[in-house]
Specification:
The complex is a heterodimer of chains A (260) and B (246). With 260 residues, chain A is mainly alpha-helical. Chain A is built from nine helices and no strands. Chain A has one domain. Chain A starts with a helix and ends with a helix. The chains are: A mainly alpha (260), B alpha/beta (246). The interface between A and B is medium-sized, with 15 and 22 residues.
Chain lengths: 260, 246
Amino acid sequence: MTTSLQIFNTLKNFFIEIGELSYFAGRFFKEVFTKPFEFKELLRQCYNIGNRSLFLVGITGFILGLVFTLQSRPTLMEFGAESWMPSMVSISIVREIGPVIIALICAGKISSGIGAELGSMRVTEQIDAMEVSGTNPFKYLVVTRIMATTLMIPLLIIFGDAIALYGSSIVEYLKGDVSFLLYFNKVFDALKFSDILPATIKSFFFGFAIGLVGTYKGYNCKNGTVGVGEASNSAVVYTSMLLFIIDFIAVFVSDIFFEL
Amino acid sequence: MENTNNIAPILKIKDLKKSFGDNHVLNGFSMELSEGENLVIMGKSGSGKSVMIKCLVGLMQPDSGSLEIMGKDIIKLTQKEFNDLRSEIGFLFQGSALYDSMTVRENLEFPLRKQKRKLEDIEKLVIEALESVGLADAIDLMPEELSGGMKRRVALARAIILRPKIIIYDEPTTGLDPITAKEIIQLMRNIQQNYKTSSLIITHDVDCARVISNRMILLIDGINYAKGTFKELSSSKDKKIQAFFK
């Protein structure tokens, strides 16, 4: 009886959380189209989120391309299909691995950062101070950050994909004596519109999810400094889960439209 | 300080009630603040002082009762009307609540951002506000570089930058050493004299109440338990009242 009660309470809390997150998202869509617009803060957030994640995304993308090529190469060689390497790597990275891995990295860095920043602002009454001064804190803090992640994550993913392909081309050059020109010719021959478009569209949703969960957790932070830690931690966990759900839906929908 | 009771109320709370589940925090609290008056509200921790001021500035919705600021019932105002009215209220938070990602200058500029003012005017207001709290040199520092007392002064400068008619102080001397606390109290008096503000002060600090109050209210069990001047209340024989002044 106690166990079933616990399961019931866990499920109840889960659905309450989903409901509150949906309400929060609804408020975002309501506020994003109403004046006044906080352009200056939006640009500042775009700079913070985009520019300051560039190095991490670049390193991750480079190692991803390098390792992926190194590990796939022996298997392809067994079948005498090493010439397929650029096509296989580019399609895998652009369609799936690049967006998902980079979005997960950004969930760890950006979503948790937003959760901790807003959580700290909440517990030190900075958000209240903003409201008392006549500024709408939701618009100033939440809308700008969600917009910034929605716009910046796709750019970071494109950048990460490019670096990953560059990393892969280095392995091919060193191990397979394939020139950069030939490698990238094969890459662009292999990539189609149906590979790039769905991946780009889903990266906007990834960005939205990263911003939404981070701001939701931080903005509704409770229980003092302990709550800040919880907000930051749960922002990463919830965002990661949401990214996989979005990815699943995106692949499913892409399959209907583009017959993958 | 002289009593200013005979002047019309600039702020009026009537029969304010607020509960959290079964916990009835405010049970019909009423009070009035006259123009130019310094009203101190004292109460034990958890007595509803913070809830009352949060209702007053719109950070919390009361269950019932009316809250009038400068003759306007804030519960009936639209968000825009209320935001306009908020520029007439300065608020000093207990923990200062400075925006820690902004410099002192940006903290002070923040309340002015929605007002279409020239850059020179903004600069002038910021410097004036900082000079009035004796911190003009700290203009480009970050909050993390300031001591507790300096943070409280900057927060005070931010509270007065819009030249509000009412200033609400939430525990203005809590967490400060006695000397800094005295400096803050002196600053509050100076501001009241220079800017002709009305002040609502929530405090536990008996010295602060003695120095600054024209009138006091003791908030006990969610109601206005006793009111009067510091002298009247401190000489009361009621044990509940006496507990505050021991």
